[in-house]
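Hello,

Our lab assistant flagged a job as stuck in the queue for most of the afternoon. It eventually completed. Since we weren't sure the result was trustworthy after the delay, we are filing this so someone can double-check. Below is the sequence as submitted and the structure that was eventually returned. Let us know if re-running is recommended.
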Amino acid sequence: MPVELLLAPEAELDILEACTWYEHRRAGLGEESLSSVDASFARIRRQPGMYSVVHESYRRSLLRRFPYAVFFELSGARVTVYAVFNMSRDPDKWRQRLL
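-- returned structure --
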């Protein structure tokens, strides 16, 4: 059974920034990045427990086409997404966000 998925405001901002950045690179690419994020959310909602814990209680789902990862926490029937980070960046950035 799918779980409820909540987005932290910081994660919403991450998504908006990535979408805007890609859209400025090529028309339509921002929409494609957003579709990739949505597909990741759908997979997380269906089977959140299949993703490995990468830091304390936080799990990570990698986007298929873009170099981003969704960092989330599973609590009962609820998933909270805390960050959608570019994995080319310094890994300490996402760890700091999750503290």
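-- support follow-up --
The delay was a queue issue, not a problem with the job. The result is valid. The helical segments are 9-25, 29-46, 91-98. The beta strands are 4-7, 53-55, 58-62, 68-75, 78-86.
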